[in-house]
Amino acid sequence: MNILILNWRDIKNPKGGGAEILTHELAKRWASGGHSVTLFASEFPRCEKQEVLDGIKIIRVGHPDARYVFSSVHFLAYRYYKENFKKKFDVVIDEVHGLPFFTPWYVKGKKVVLICEVAGKLWLEMFGLLGIFGRVIEKFYLKIYRDLLFLTISNSTKEELIKEGVNEENITVLPMGITVPSKLKKYKKERTPTLIFVGRLSKPKGIEDAIKALEMIARKIPKINLWIVGRGDEGYVNYLKTLAKKLNIEDRATFFGFVSENKKFELIGRAHILLAPSVKEGWGLTVPEAAFVGTPTVAYDSPGLRDVLRGSIFKIVTKSSTPGGLRNEIIKLFQDKDFFNKLKKESLNMQEFNWDRTAQVALKILKV
User: Fold this and answer.
1) What is the pLDDT of residues 205-257, one digit of tens each?
2) Roughly how many angstroms between the first and final C-alpha of the chain, as a whole number?
3) Assigned domain for 187 exists
4) Is the pTM of this model over 0.85?
5) Which terminus, N or C, of the chain has the lesser number of Cβ atoms within 10 Å?
6) Which residue range forms the structural domain that includes residue 268?
């Protein structure tokens, strides 16, 4: 098959996240299986305009933000398709991150939608009044797309898609995989109680709640520390550091910025508890990653996060999605010595998180 993927970012983009990991893991397996895979994505500073990576031909054009309109990757994908791609592909994957590529308007052949989450109320939380426009567009395009085949990564997203009018029989929930470094070793936990947050530093990810919870926990556990791993816009990161200073916990909150995968797993393995206070996720990749190295997660009961490791000892869901909710569960865990002893005897079944299975399920849909 000749497969074209339209996505706002690719795996090498500095702002790429879990969705780009998913896309790459799928695409490279399809390529190794003899299929031709082209990924059309946005540019980023000092990127190669075209390259072949793991058998995937990557073309980078335009800005990832649709507000750049005629210089956005979304508009340029349309133009590039009309000029260079027309009738060359058996299937086009329209990957949605807030906004789609509106392929029904210009792709005559088969189209499959890959969507990790429905933005919904996030439009308003992230963009204020401007977000109303984004939410209207989201509801509009889902009506246009409702009869297409959808690939998604959680039952939460499937349920939201159905509420938005997408035909249930057209939605496939992919079994998710995780990628771990080949030379991973076991890490000893820190002597000092240590929490860790891993992810993009943005308000919807809940990093502010994690910092506020740290201040609350420190009143009960004075030696508590929080490691913050991930990058974000410079202005917002400075705001977070100012917040930590205002709460008088700047010496307890360590900002690592972006780290390698090996370093990420090392830090997660050395920490005692991973914090996942996001208001919405497609799935919550860091939760099973943490479980793999023996670290439990305290998470909000939010879409996506509630789906991953359901019922596992490695995930504890807060009773309220607030800093106080985080504080209560974390203090409870540190006071329960038997919990961490029991945790040492548990392990993650890696057979459940196999990218090969993910790619096979997705490929069946592409061939329908």
Assistant:
1) 999 999 999 999 999 999 999 999 999 999 999 999 999 999 999 999 999 99
2) 12
3) no
4) yes
5) C
6) 194-351
